[in-house]
Amino acid sequence: MSKYTSGLNESQRDAVLYNEGPLLVIAGAGSGKTRVLTMRIARLVAEKRCNPEQILAVTFTNKAAKEMKERVASLTSKPVADKMTLCTFHSLGVRILREEGEIVGLNKNFTIIDEHERTSTLKSIMRAAGVRGLKNEDPNEFGTRISLAKNASLIPSEYKKENPEDRKLFRVYNSYNQILLKRQTVDFDDLLLLPLQIFRKKPEILKKYQQRFKFISIDEFQDTNAVQMKLATLLAFPSNNIMVVGDDDQGIYSWRGAEIQNIISFSSTFKGAKTVVLDKNYRSTSQILGGAHAVVCNNRIRKFKEITAVAGEGDPIFHYKADDEEDEAIWIAEKIKEHDKHTSFSYKDHAILLRTNAMTRRFEEELRRHRIPYKVSGAMSFYDRKEIKDILAYLRFFSNTDDELSLLRVLKVPSKGIVKSTIEKLDEMAAFRRMSLWDAMQRANENDKITPEQKRKIETFVELCNRYTTLFNQGILATSFRALLEECNYFELLKKAYSEPDELEPRLANIEEMFHGLEIYEKKHKRKTPTLSGYLQEIALLTQDEQQENEKDKNKGVILMTLHKSKGLEWPVVILAGLDREVMPSPRAVSEGKVEEERRLFYVGMTRAQKRLYLTYPGTKMFRGKMKQVTPCPFLREIPQEFLDGIIGEKQDEEKLEYLDSFFKEMQSKLSQTTSEELD
Asked: Residue 645's pLDDT band (boundaries 50, 70, 90)?
């Protein structure tokens, strides 16, 4: 037995020892999928079946990609792992666009915008569109619809324009793409869609990447969208040496474009694919796993699998029906306090998982009253803070002078004395001459509509920019950036805006952290000239991750987070709280016929628990100033009695749940038909 199969169970060995051709690994919760994926990669290289450079392995978060690389390095060596492409889908897209972006009109220094900048761009488009009623519509709604269109690989010319709403979206989508290209910027969806367009336009480019990557592995395959599926299919052709790992029972992201059908239909897409089911769970006890499995088995669209627990039988699944919402929060806080005092479970071993962020308030208040340390996952990101967005605008502009959104923020914060009317005249000049706003500023002397005083201010600003651009191009990043902010009086602006020390000091500390990040980046890349675009690329890809990846490691107390954010994490004790039928399944999911996805979400929450699982709901709650009875989440009723500590619900609850059998049958009938071949 080689070191690559030592300690593996039979199913894991089957996957690790598989050589060529398509391979589908159905990896149940806690089944050791990352170990299998990395062991197989290491074995393929060790046995000389390919060179390290011919390995491509992609996943969805930077933390997961980093962990994958560290594991492969421990099995081979760091130099070997460094030769492989082990990254996220979006990182792969960036690499392709840096090499081939000119095919779709991008230069190598393009920048990546975040959601806030996307919304700002859409707002400006909608204001200028001149479409009746468009000015009053929600730019975030347009942003979501454009994102879903891109994830479905639909470009504006392919978007249906059958009704006024579609035509409206087409106009905004088309203008949005044109502005992004003019500014030499892309959004995160473009990092996937544009490489796909390049491959379609230039088959010879696609062939180059097909030859480069002999073996492809994809983690969390149930989370892939249409574009990612097409990219994977194209890159794997013609050898189809593609291994995908995932669990259809944990597919919970359809709202952001993920298509569960990608993993369900893998064997149909890749003929002759071998399927391996990792059927041993190393995380949860058999009571927890048995109850969770019984719930998710009610889904009709899923791959059949029997998962068994290795960790022993354990305690039954506990449940608590509270008198009201306040009593539920008090009971949970007291139970956590009791655990910390009288059991081996400390505060940090607990997680309270909720259907929505809005539900955290009452639990936070009760934890504070009981003096229990806690952390709410999803607090404002470091890069969402105003002062960080301000200085990121400076970095983005000096990296890419065509980024007009960043340029406008630089001009405004602090004010460079260039008034709004002057900017409008420069913008008109840029539009007329088909140049960028920055180019128009450099040629402001040619614009007779601008006053001499304003021309002098523009000239001063351009001189400042050129001076610091020279320093940045020499790789002098941190010290130059600090000097730039000082010369622009940014720190003076902050001191005026935040006169109180407790307001000012945290903001200054945040900026110091940015300087520190630049210093670390410079040190890491000292062998070659460090660039602002390289630093911004690292930031953009890091901030794409939801913060939940690191929350558990950073926190010393109880974690509060949504069920969606909990995916991929685990705790000794998990409490699923607020299990009210009006909350879960969510009303929107019910109306859209996505009850099966809500059931998968419930399953994900249950399987985060290692040793103890608590399910709680209030008996009554306040609604518009009046108390009303609560019907518990219907998924609770699907847990067999053998896995529970008692009967869920009283007779009145049972009466309220009588309609549910017919309800689920009705919802299932609305689901699209799936062939038995796809489900086998």
From this structure: confident
- What is residue 444's DSSP assignment? G
The DSSP secondary structure of 56-72, one letter per residue, reads EEEESSHHHHHHHHHHH
Rounded distance, CA 72 to CA 77, Å?
Answer: 8
Q: What angle do CA 371, 373, 376 make, to 5 degrees?
A: 125
**What are the structure tokens assigned to 442, written together?**
């450099």
The answer to whether 40 and 243 have CB atoms below 8 angstroms apart is yes
325: closest CA among 154, 501, 577, 55? 577
375-431: per-residue pLDDT in tens?
888 655 577 778 989 999 999 999 999 999 999 999 999 999 999 999 999 999 998
Confidence (pLDDT) at 361: 77
Strands 626-629 and 620-623: antiparallel
What are the residue numbers of the active site?
33-34, 219-220, 250, 608
Alpha-carbon dihedral of residues 204, 208, 213, 217, nearest 10 degrees? -40
Query: SS3 helix, strand, coil % of the chain, rounded to 5?
Result: 60, 10, 30
Coil, strand, or helix at residue 415?
coil
Place of tokens 């707002």: 123
Tokens of 115: 């959601």
The three-state secondary structure class of 564 is: helix
- Give the closest residue to 220 by CA, choosing from 34, 14, 22: 34
User: What are the residues facing 615 on neighbouring strands?
Assistant: 319, 576
CA gap 459, 28 in Å, rounded? 63
Give the torsion through C-alpha atoms of 525, 529, 535, 541, to 10 deg: -70
Residues ≥6 apart with Cβ < 8 Å to 544: 62, 88, 90, 188
pLDDT digits over 112-158, tens only?
988 888 888 888 887 776 545 555 677 888 888 888 889 888 888 77
**What does the chain come to in residues?**
680
Pairwise CA distance, residues 146 & 149, whole Å: 5
H helix or E strand, kind and range, residue 86:
strand 85-88
DSSP state of 580: B
* Tokens 């009623």, residue located: 133
Q: Is 142 left (phi over 0), alpha (psi -120 to 50) or beta?
A: alpha
Residues 6+ apart with CB under 8 A from 181: 105, 106
Question: Would you say 540 and 114 are in contact if contact means Cβ atoms under 8 Å apart?
Answer: yes
Q: Which of helix, strand or coil describes residue 658?
A: coil
Check residue 165 and give its pLDDT.
Answer: 76
DSSP β-bridge partners for residue 112:
186
Closest-CA residue to 179 (of 145, 129, 140, 109): 129
Tell how strand 571-576 and strand 609-618 pair up.
Answer: parallel
263-315 pLDDT tens trace: 999 999 999 999 999 989 999 999 999 999 999 999 998 888 888 898 899 99
Q: How many CB atoms sit inside 10 A of residue 179's CB?
A: 16
Burial of 572 (0-12, 13-18, 19+ CB in 10 A): middle
